[in-house]
Fold allantoinase.
Amino acid sequence: MTRQLISAALALLPGEQSPKPASIEVDLATGTIVDIRPGLEDREKAQGYDEVIEVEEGKVLLPGLIDTHVHLNQPGRTAWEGFQTGTLAAISGGVTTLIDMPLNSIPPTTTAEGLRVKREEASRVGVNCDIGFWGGIIPGNAGELVPMLGQGVKGFKCFLIESGVDEFPCVNEDDLRKACEALKNTNALVLFHAELVADDSHAHENHDGHDHESGSTSSKDPKSYSTFLDSRPEEWELSALELILKFAKSYPQLRFHIVHLSAASALPAIRQARADGIKNLTVETCFHYLCLKAEDIPDNATQFKCCPPIRDEKNRQALLKAVLDGEIDYVVSDHSPCVPELKKGDFLEAWGGVSGLGLGFSLLYTELGEKGGLSRVVDWMGARQAEQVGIKGQKGELRVGAKADFVVFDPEKRFEVTLDNLLFKNKVSPYLGKQLKGLVEKTYLSGKLVWDVSKGQGGAALSTGSLI
Ligand SMILES: [Zn+2]
């Protein structure tokens, strides 16, 4: 056994509100934590180890973070992102586990064969953090769902509105019922892009924003953000919620999840459903809905365009409160990039999707670190998401038996987001210029240092991740 000792004056252990001194022993052969002892050990005792890491004073040792909503787009749209660049961005922000969405790769992950192709491609090019995969539900693929589950997908995403790519069509109630029937002997997780056009007279503008018809927005200024915002009303999220709740009641053994909730006006209905005994519904929101607001978005600033849209300040405050109150379960990036050419033009033409992988923890800590406390911020990007995808105990916490994924975090460091902070492929991001507090300095994956901010991209240890 090759033994590593991590000695940290400040380590955030499970169940603790604040960091405490701890000595953590790692078996490097398996990459797992084998012992955690309170306090720091004297130098003599530390000599018996093959490797000793002393966390610098003032820096906090955290578990590796998790992001369960990322679009890596490989194979098929590798110009948009890729396994290598996306996972490099992830480790630069302390994310050691991410779950890849079933679109916008080609093939999409809607068949067991599509999953096989994706896993093979990821293994071929290598990944810089551990990654897992979501499957997708589209019309006609109900027969593929149980086989995909058998091959390790963490659940299934579907759209209730056009997705933006032809190979991933949205589902109607009938398709959904077939999918749930196929899954009914499992406890599978079904994820919803929860916008549903209640009234057919509305234009069907798809998820990632390419309008098939300009509909009611045609007379307004497409350069103005408010035109786009008006085209994706909150009511669409409320209509979707109504349908999802119907399914949650009909299939209590399945688990249902709303991805990227944007409309705070949906929260009372979620609260009520839970009060009425619905136990199989979870909700996530994204960094961009918590950290950005419509009032600040300049004309043609399409790097802010995503679906559902970033809404106003009042909405943002209500979402922040819901995260603090525990009504929103956790927070993800929905990192969904494209090539810069597709972001050109006005708000109605440009592709929808926000890029920010790697910035999430600093964004969330800046916004909620003081009010929520460091341990809760870690929980929203750690244990809570681990539990959702069935890897609790292995990921997201500093715990004996867990993978030795660590983050060294400087809670006091202030920085401005510049191009140097963007490690993903296409450097288009609404966060450029933002002032943040709290920086991930180092990331360890299975006990191995994979990211050190002082060394930058050239110093990163690549391709040490696994498929989970
Ligand atoms: Zn997404």
The two ends are 24 Å apart (CA to CA).
